[in-house]
Amino acid sequence: MQLTPIGPGATTPAAGLASRVFERLDARLEFNVDRPIVLALSGGGDSMALLDLAALWAARRGRRLLAVTVDHGLNPDSGRWNATAARAAAAVGVAWRGVRWDGPRPSTGLPAAARAARHALIADVAREVGARVMLFAHTSSDVAEADWMRARGSSLGRIRAWAPSPAWPQGRGLMLLRPLLPESRERVRSYLSERGLGWVEDPGNVDPRYARSRARQDLAAGAVPPPTASQPRTIRGPAPRVSAVGIIQLSRAASGRTLATAAVCAGGGNRPPRGERLARLLVRLAAGEDFTAAMCGARIEALGAHVTLMREAGEFVRFPPTPQVATPGGGLVWDGRFELAGLAAGTRVVAAAGRLARLSPDDRQRLARLPSAARPTLAVLIREGSDAPVLAGVTGRVRCLVGERLALALDETTHETGLGDALHGAMPPDPLFSI
Q1: 402-409 vs 256-267: helix axis angle to the nearest 10?
Q2: Which residues contact 431 (CB under 8 A, 6 or more apart)?
Q3: What is the largest CA-CA distance in the chain?
Q4: Taking the model in full, what pTM does it have?
Q5: Bridge partners, residue 99, by sequence
Q6: Ramachandran assignment for 35, one of left (phi > 0), alpha (psi -120 to 50 degrees), beta (any other)
Q7: What does the pLDDT look like over 11-24, one tens digit per residue?
Q8: DSSP code of residue 226
């Protein structure tokens, strides 16, 4: 494989595909900046084509690429596949890194677990090297297969051309760009053939034990995927308001997508609501009913024209957060909602629930500005050698992740230039309780 230029006046199918992909990359990414772009490289046909195309684009636009290959350890040939990916990246002058999934293998849902691990590992690398955007090689064929799977009960999310990383909290502040999404797998394979490029064929792609393989075979045999419901790309109506402690206020007329996304963000998790649960809440909102409900770890209060979402304190009893202790570096993400830094090593981070009465008078005065239901859901610190809780933000630095996560999920940021330091680990000076 070599980085053979495609002339600007070429009229071949490969040149046509390259022109379209370059336009999509130009529309989202910055030029001539010394910040890397991470590219997910499996060694399969789609990602090998994306590697070639992205390398051509990067050479023209003054950008660095880092190709990342995840070894899931699920196939005895994975080492050979990794070597193939590494050679392909080197041949086009792209840096390469291999990472391995060493986590536990579930007895069921292995493809979903492997997919989640892949996203998390690639996001970890992206954050480490300072990237803001990751390129993935999904095509329109992947969209059709996902639609086929959803029609048969899968909870697989919809694939969008520009979307936040689904890994949380590893992917905070990171966006996924899929510049091949309008192209079919067949068109991408034609590009590879015309360019004289090879790729790895994963036997799992034809293993009928996996739903993705069954979808691929069914569609190849002529099955028609179900129609895809149109998805709103921008917020309609009044935009959500988010406080510095992650309390979200929506209009009662907010769309189902906005309500679902806000609930996930306010709850700090990464699992979307079940369709029937969301539908019932939307009916109650449309009827003008005032109520309090819980969904996705969030408390939802509908009163008058507004809907307020915050973390549900009762979830700390049902699903206690994993205890976290600050390392010498002092940084961590707590409950999927707050990023803390500047903590002394050995400091424990826990929920305020059950500890409110033991806070100092000054801390209780700070909390008095918040709705009572939100107070138990904030983080407090237990310093080493002490059992007295201290409100996070008084000691150390705290950044709420809820607002920026919601903004990215609802398409408020459409270009790499909008993903500034505030979305990528910087700790702004705003106090925690400036609501």
Answers
A1: 150
A2: 244, 393
A3: 73
A4: 0.87
A5: 70
A6: beta
A7: 798 999 999 999 99
A8: P
